[in-house]
Amino acid sequence: MSNGLRRVLAVTAVVSLGLGAASCGSAKQASSGGSPGGAGASVAVGAVRIGLLLPETKTTRYEQFDRPLIEKKIKELAPQAQIDYYNANQDATLQQTQVDTALTKGDKVLILDPVDSKSIQSSVQKAHDAGVKVLAYDRLAQGPVDAYVSFDNHKVGELQGQALVAAVGDRAKAGEIFMINGSPTDPNAADFKAGAHSAIDGKLKIGKEFDTPQWDPNTANQEAAAAITAIGGPNVVGAYAANDGMAAGVATALKAAGISVPLTGQDAQLDGIQRIVAGTQTMTVYKPLKPEAEAAAQIAVALASGKPLDSTLVPNTVTNGSGNKVPANLLTPIVVTKDKIKDTVVADGFYTVAQICTPDYAAACKTIGLQ
């Protein structure tokens, strides 16, 4: 069990002591969810409205994991709570409009994963002025944010960089790597980049480096192809991709160039895990989404109660880009390589062996002992 998971389980005990079973409802996009029935103790917040604002759909995690996990936990803790769901589809202006809509609908707490941490500051201020609490989720927004839940993002980049240095090994002096970083509007991307550089600088030579708007896999593919051309295929000894979505584009570019070199990733997407099985990606960073999502739900419900946040809910403090000190819960990321798949994403029920080991990957799965 990871340290982050242990911390969240402890948080669960504080927030939902004595919690019984409660059925869960499904909220429609930009509309309120129903209030389910069911007995059991819950936080006395009544029919409070909570807005859930996620940033995009290109990364599979948000619709498949974050949204349903957050909604389920909120309904367990506060069965009468109504949830308004919004997805900005990577449009910062649309997200600002969605915040306005949430405030108009009467949402008292916003769980906000910002598309652009800087431009959303005015919306955060507007919510604050209206007495609405804002919980920054996964990405830290600027402005008077009330709480923040994420992973130690500098550590994520550090783990990626360390894994790449180790995988390149003795070939470090034989050539150069290229780096495909995340979106410049995402504050997490800057942390990943800084963490990666802290492990890579002085150990690997960086031939080309890009910051990739909107984390777009197609753009990452084009950047990787340009880097390979600039460095020269035989001289490429490794590739840093900040997440699995972009790693897919990088892997395609490497294959087209006939190159097989270590490649990083993040988010433990299914296709990323399958590339690790097949040997076309070296590692990913697994950030257990259930602990993160449940911590967000717990903090949101606690904020809705109007009581000060307990230190077990937010044991850390961070400073956002506008200089605000924000109570935070920073969870622990986990490196996944071939030999760690079974003990991480499979053991946690994130994926089944059958989901990973489809016919195209069955032989490779057997080779690494996954089947």
List the helices and strands and how they pair.
Blueprint: H1 3-15, E1 49-54, H2 61-77, E2 82-87, H3 92-105, E3 109-112, H4 121-129, E4 133-137, E5 147-151, H5 153-168, E6 176-181, H6 187-200, E7 206-211, H7 217-231, E8 236-241, H8 244-256, H9 270-278, E9 284-286, H10 289-305, E10 316-319, E11 325-331, E12 334-336, H11 342-346, H12 353-356, H13 362-367
Parallel strand pairs: 1-2, 1-3, 3-4, 4-5, 5-11, 6-7, 6-8
Antiparallel strand pairs: 9-12, 10-11
Number of strands: 12
- Summarize the biggest pleated sheet: 7 strands, mixed
Note poorly predicted spans: 1-43
Radius of gyration: 21 Å
Distance between the termini: 23 Å
Q: In terms of structural class, how would the helical and strand content be classed?
A: alpha/beta
Tally of DSSP helical segments: 13
Task: List the helices and strands in order.
Answer: HEHEHEHEEHEHEHEHHEHEEEHHH
Rounded mean pLDDT score = 89
Give the neighbour order of strands across the main sheet. Answer: 2-1-3-4-5-11-10
- How does the overall form come out from the CA principal axes? globular
Beta-strand residue percentage: 15-25%
Helix content: 40-55%
Task: Outline the structure in words.
By secondary structure, the chain is an alpha/beta fold. It contains 13 helices and 12 strands. The strands form 3 sheets. The protein has a 7-stranded mixed sheet with strand order 2-1-3-4-5-11-10, with helices on both faces. The chain has a 3-stranded parallel sheet with strand order 7-6-8, sandwiched between helices. α6 links the parallel β6 and β7. Mean pLDDT is 89; it is low at 1-43.
